[in-house]
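Whether sequence alone determines local backbone shape is best considered at the level of individual chains. For completeness, the protein is quoted in full, as a sequence line and a line of structure tokens:
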Amino acid sequence: MSKMSPQIVVCGAGMAGISAAYHLTVKHKKRVLIIDEGQPLSLTSNKGTQAYRNWWPGPDDTMVKFINRSIELIAELAEKTNNHFGLNQRGYLFLTAQESQINNWRKSSQEISKLGAGEFREHSSLDNYLPTLTENFNKTLLGADLILDPEYINKLYPFLTKDVKAALHIRRAGWMNSIKLGEWLKEEVERCGGEFLLDKLESIKVINNKIVSIKLASGKVLEPESLVLAVGPHLKSVGDMLGLDLPVFNELHSKITFPDTKNIFSANAPLMIWDDELYLPWTDEEKRLWASNVSTSWLLNKFPSGVHLRPKGDSKNLEIMIIWTYKQQIEKDFKPIKFNSHYGEVLIRAISRMIPEMSHYFGQGDKAYIDGGYYCKTSENRPLIGHLPISGVYIIGALSGYGIMSSQAAGELLALHVLGEKLPDYAPMFLLERYQNASYQKLLKELQSNSGQL
């Protein structure tokens, strides 16, 4: 067996692993080797919406601080690269046809604003409302705007349902091309001496509670000073190699993409979310068909809120991306992904509640491109970043559906842990040992696995 001795090995070449390697190599000049059995950014990092937002619920300000820091770092990279990865700040636009939802928004927005997400503004007239930024980003635009003029909302977005009552526009939010960002980060790592190895972690040797070496499927043996676990949905099984029962699980999330051949949507729209529960609009014949079989009767149930979409591409080549996890599918460890045969049609029918003209695409759900990946999560939907009980081993994982938006703060924090540098005040909240803390146990009672999740 050949031997190699990099200073730090990062196991996993998703956005979390590459970001950690970037901060270790580029910012702190450490010798880093990234290993992964697949191509970089190919397992989970390219499966999401590539969106971001700093709008996170409490009860404390931990997640707002964490994501705010990450967005700051991402914006710095956008400026440094002449916005190579297309960071925008179009925002998230929540929409409702229910008057009762307005007070819910108002209450939650006031609470989140106090946590540091920015000012909450309520508009009965639109004199002081700044419409969606269609290009680039504005680091001074924060907070949220509650728009209570349905006529103005429909004027801005004429494709929306006419019974819309209000909109809540989250402003420090938008999306980017995360693959371009990840590829640029990887190039910078390699430029500064970091390396990538296509291989698979097979075992980890630990003596006296300290990492000694790791063995790869190729037969190579590495003897790093530090091992960083950035393995995404494989976190549970890699934890087992170390004799650790990591408190994580995987939850499947999916999306569909299809060309807007009918020119219904807008290439300049923000990410739009329908925040009301709904029933899918089936014909009477379809209803009878679904009701006749226990395996399809669920299609007639009331569905949860949260179906959302965003444009992809420009007006000449516009695609519609629809995202919705209407039913949880949980796995303890990574398993091959299978999509429900009705998934595409369900999403198109659901989004028609917000955009009625989407009915032109009814019956075409099987033609949409479906993909997805696992959110690796903790029970309270907060990450695991920092040292593990075995000396020399670190974790950056359980980044759930916010891996892209949190990647830079997560990578920065991981590097600070490895190097023994001063940590930000939110750092203890992401350690594995937090679960042994009495005060954190109290916090857990207020948090759920969908806390802050869309």
Summary: The chain has two domains: 3-50+178-248+378-444, 92-172+250-375. The mean pLDDT is 95. Residues 92-172+250-375 form a domain with the D-Amino Acid Oxidase; Chain A, domain 2 fold (CATH 3.30.9.10).
